[in-house]
Amino acid sequence: MFYRRISEDLQVALTLPQHAEALFDLTDRNRTYLKAWLPWLDATKSASDTKRFIESNLESFAKGTALNEVLLYQGSIAGVLGFNEIDTFNGIGQVGYWLGEAYTRRGLMTVAVADLIQLGFQDLRLQRVEIRCATENWRSRAIPERLGFQHEGTLRNVERVGQRLHSHAVYGLLRSEFQAKD
Predict the structure, then answer these.
(1) DSSP string covering 5-67, please?
(2) For residue 130, what are the CA distances in angstroms to 34, 37, 42, 93, 169?
(3) Domain spanning 3-181: which superfamily?
């Protein structure tokens, strides 16, 4: 099983079907908090929905086109992150993440995304990592900004969440920029 220890309290692991119940529970407890930003939330009604999502992600992982991880804080699932899409031909990974409200404002996701980026550039041989965030989701946008990504522009009205269309801020980090930071 894929597992990485980031610190004493923080680990990431490949999202597996045995995580479905705990991940669904985290999702369910945080519906109100997450509802403004996640379009898939209303379609996730049970642990079996979460399990199907995980199984689909594992198929993509086997093909090399995605990598989804659970974020474990002190042994409990705190959120998820990963390369939602990996374009192997062009060497581009698109990062997505979310965190349960009780785990916010601790820097956990910033540290975990930094680890994911390192994995992407070193092990997956990506040449570019991209993060897209709703323009009004300031907490989510702070992560690529803290990690040295360049704000490359805004895509207008690209994601429907409920009855609202969100625009996305697009952030990019190139392998050469990542290596220059070392």
Answers:
(1) E-SSSEEEEE--GGGHHHHHHHHHHTHHHHTTT-TTGGG--SHHHHHHHHHHHHHHHHHTS-E
(2) 21, 18, 26, 6, 10
(3) Gcn5-related N-acetyltransferase (GNAT) (3.40.630.30)
| CA nearest neighbour of 181 among 136, 114, 94 | 114
Q: Where are the domains of the chain?
A: 3-181
Under 8 Å between Cβ of 100 and 139: no
Query: Which single residue is written with the structure tokens 């990062």?
Result: 95
> Of the candidates 179, 181, 101, which has an alpha carbon nearest to the alpha carbon of residue 146?
181
- CA–CA separation, 159 and 46 (whole Å): 23
Residue 68 to residue 96: CA distance in whole angstroms: 9
145-176 tens-digit pLDDT: 999 999 999 999 999 999 999 999 999 999 99
Type of residue found at 76: S
Sort residue 146 into left (φ over 0), alpha (ψ -120 to 50) or beta.
alpha
- Tens of pLDDT along 102-129? 999 999 999 999 999 999 999 999 999 9
35-62 burial code (b ≥16 CB/10 A, e <16): eebbeebeebeebeebbebbeebbebbe
